[in-house]
Amino acid sequence: MSRFLQAAFLAALLLVAVPAPNAVQAQQGDAPVEPGQTFTGRVTEVTDGDTFGVRRSIGGQVTIRLHGVDAPESAQSYGQAATRAARRYVGSKNVRVAVEEIGRYGRAVARVEAEGGDLGAMLIGDGLAWHYRQYAPNETEYARLEQQARGASRGLWSQSNPVPPSEWRDRTSGPGETSAEDRDCSDFDTQPEAQRFFERHRSDSSGGDPHNLDGDGDVSRASGTFEY
């Protein structure tokens, strides 16, 4: 087979193997959204400092990953503090969401505004998140706020050598999103909430269970649900 035909064949395989972002959203139970779209809604779930579930005013749940922000993972220092701060700012509150892009795991990467403030800016300014330069190099305000927080030894910057979440994920889970043991069912109020988290992060980790929510192996092969 010529190199051209090999390349064409591989490209066709990738198109079949990798679902479109809207298809991934549908698999996760999310309402489809597109880059450039804005909507209002109420935050129904704060998974961690930079990941949220939002119920749109027009209906449908959307999983949001904050644009330009990387908060400490739950098992990291200041991870729980970042989650608590996010809950104070947006938990069960009405927000405005501006979708920047659809991430590789089907989540809407977006800005979130609550009570007139940019959530990402508030978390970074509090010293509870990093400016995610890799994915948002032009967010100069985020860079400025991070520098201020560093200079004031605010939040996580009070540590002598804080580890960026991306580096921490590489150390603990490889390319997945979070460590294998930083969440269990006691962290969730309801089974559906835990199920959504399980499904979302199972997809993000090539079919695995990075948070070990299904530690006793009782996931149903047919339904993909687990006992709570």
Give your account of this protein's structure.
This protein is an alpha+beta fold. The protein contains 7 helices and 8 strands; from the N terminus they run ααββββαβββαβααα. It has a 5-stranded mixed beta barrel. It has a two-stranded antiparallel ribbon with strand order 4-8. A hairpin with a 2-residue loop joins β6 (108-114) and β7 (117-118). α4 (119-125) packs parallel to α5. 36% of the residues are buried. Residues 4-19, 174-182, 202-208 and 216-228 have low confidence and may be disordered.
Structure summary:
By secondary structure, the chain is α+β, with helices and mostly antiparallel strands.
Strand content: 15-25%
First-to-last CA distance: 52 Å
- The dominant shape is globular
Structural class category: alpha+beta
**Spans of 5+ residues with little confidence (pLDDT < 50)?**
4-19, 174-182, 202-208, 216-228
| Helical residue percent band | 25-40%
Order of helices and strands: HHEEEEHEEEHEHHH
Number of helices: 7
What is the assembly state of the chains in this entry? single chain
Q: Which sequence of strands runs across the widest sheet?
A: 1-2-3-6-5
Query: What is the rounded Rg?
Result: 18 Å
For the sheet with most strands, the description reads: 5 strands, mixed, barrel
Mean pLDDT: 78
Q: Could you give the count of β-strands? A: 8
